[in-house]
Design brief:
Elements: E1 3-6, E2 9-13, E3 18-22, E4 25-30, E5 34-37, E6 44-48, E7 55-65, E8 69-78, E9 81-89, E10 101-104, E11 111-114, E12 117-118, E13 130-134, E14 139-143, E15 146-151, E16 155-159, E17 165-168, E18 178-187, E19 191-200, E20 203-211, E21 226-228, E22 234-237, E23 240-241
Antiparallel strand pairs: 1-2, 2-5, 3-4, 3-11, 5-6, 6-10, 7-8, 8-9, 9-10, 11-12, 13-16, 14-15, 14-22, 16-17, 17-21, 18-19, 19-20, 20-21, 22-23
Length: about 250
């Protein structure tokens, strides 16, 4: 299939084996996944209908996409287990490559694997790179004029499309101001993160700080380090105040 562009949608043939599980059963197993960029931030897997082991049962729902056309909704059924509204098929799409493919709802499935490794949230984007570099730059973090972190041994994480993130040793962070928030998130490149709130004076700042305690192997260099949202705090690098970036996290 190669690379195909239709309006704002980009399609590319993947080269990884992809398996999808529901209730311990294999829903799909393919070496021919298609990566579809429905938005510019990350791709979605569309899988050949011929490589599905589960049954798709029409549920009477439909969805419309300006770029992909009209989709028919299906329930996914395997070994007595049903995932409702878990699949879409574009039978008459203006993008003909979609006709033989199925879009499985990521969160409706229990597990996704690329080769033999689990992947979380969405497929890894082949055009996203993550570099984690040891640095001796002086990083100071302020909230409302109060220094909440001061480090000369950061790990700087550079990820395509995002601002540089400064991961700091906990010994360089005002841990007395941090309180576990109960919030958690997942990243296909780094793993599962836990969050802290920051209390400065009488004000509590929710989920301003996160930590990957046991990151994925390729991101081990940030294990056990704390990171603040550049978008929400004042960060000084070698004494120079950094402009707050504008992102989806602002």
């Amino acid at each position: 299939m190669g690379d195909a562009r239709r309006g704002r949608v980009t399609l590319e043939t993947g080269r990884k084996r992809v398996r999808v599980y529901l209730g311990g059963h294999v829903v799909a197993d393919t070496t021919r996944p298609t990566l579809v960029w429905e938005n510019p931030h990350y791709p979605t897997y569309y899988l050949p209908a011929a490589d599905l082991r589960a049954k798709l049962e029409p549920n009477g729902t439909n969805q419309h996409s300006p770029s992909r056309g009209d989709a028919t909704g299906y329930d996914v059924v395997i070994e007595g287990i049903t995932a409702e509204n878990a699949a879409l098929r574009y039978h008459d799409s203006p993008i003909p490559e979609l006709d033989a493919l199925v879009r499985l709802e990521w969160g409706a499935m229990d597990e996704w694997f690329e080769e033999d490794e689990p992947v979380y949230v969405h497929p890894r984007d082949p055009y996203t790179r993550v570099d984690i570099l040891t640095s001796s730059r002086h990083i100071r973090v302020e909230i409302d004029g109060v220094t909440v972190a001061d480090s000369r041994s950061p790990r700087i994480l550079f990820e395509t499309g995002l601002p540089a993130r400064y991961y700091l040793p906990l010994t360089d962070v005002r841990m007395d101001l941090l309180y576990a928030s109960g919030t958690h998130s997942s990243c296909p490149y780094k793993g599962n993160a836990d969050y802290w709130n920051v209390c400065v004076g009488d004000t509590e700042y929710a989920d301003y700080v996160w930590i990957y305690r046991t990151p994925l192997p390729e991101s081990q260099k940030i294990a056990g380090l704390a990171c603040f949202y550049n978008e929400k705090v004042d960060i000084y690098v070698d004494g120079e105040l950094q402009e707050r970036p504008r992102t989806a996290f602002s």
